[in-house]
Amino acid sequence: MTKIGYLGILSGLTMIAGCSNAEQDTNARQPSSESLEQNAAIFQYDSGLSVGDRVPLDIAVKVDGKATNLAKLLEDGPIVLFFVRSVEWCGFCQAQLKAVEQIIPDLESRGYRPIAVSYDPTDVQSKFLVDQKLNITLLSDESSSLIDGFELRDPQFTQGRAEGVPYAAVMVIGQTGRILNKTISGNHTVRPRNQQILNLVDAI
User: What are the start-end ranges of the E strands in 59-178?
Assistant: First the structure.
């Protein structure tokens, strides 16, 4: 992927040390939510749909085992959509969502609902939410169809457990279905800290 430099409002993003590949399981050392708040710089990667593009509204996903799509979800207002690799085995994704939980009220006060999507089945997602006592909405995209619709599938994983995972990405999507702002990391160990997510929204 082509590096396109630093994104102005996200000049300080968080870097989490660790995980050398996508096959690390959750028995290994996990990053803490606090580690997501440390400052580091990250290059933005030229991948996925662009700001201003219309998102794929009709691709079917599931929430709690029930079919839905972005068109239905956007009926309730704009969203901040977090693409994560797996809530079952990716410790960086788990830590990110635990951190995002802390700013749900801040995002909602700005008129945005945070939603995350992974290729995990709904039973795995539900267990994660219950175990971690989280309230964020999780979309199950088992076929990676929505991931592909956003052009975010990580091409380096073509087989095994990580096949079909997305780049770590945050997409701010307006109620009309267009991308208003975004950030994409080419390194799964690097995620935006909470203040940078709020800055991403506030910059619109």
Answer: 61-63, 66-68, 79-83, 113-118, 137-140, 168-173
Mean pLDDT of all residues in 191-202? 94
Q: Residue range 167-182: average pLDDT?
A: 97
Q: Which of 192, 173, 169, 193 is nearest to 181 (CA)?
A: 173
CB contact at 8 A, 166 and 185: no
Give the number of other CB atoms < 10 A from CB of residue 6: 14
In this predicted model, what pLDDT tens digit does every residue of 58-68 receive, in sequence order? 999 999 999 99
Residues 34/35/37/38 CA torsion (nearest 10 deg)? 140
Distance CA 115, CA 136 (A): 6
Start-to-end CA span in the chain (Å): 26
How far is 84 from 158, CA to CA, in rounded Å? 17
Neighbours of 57 (CB within 10 A): 15
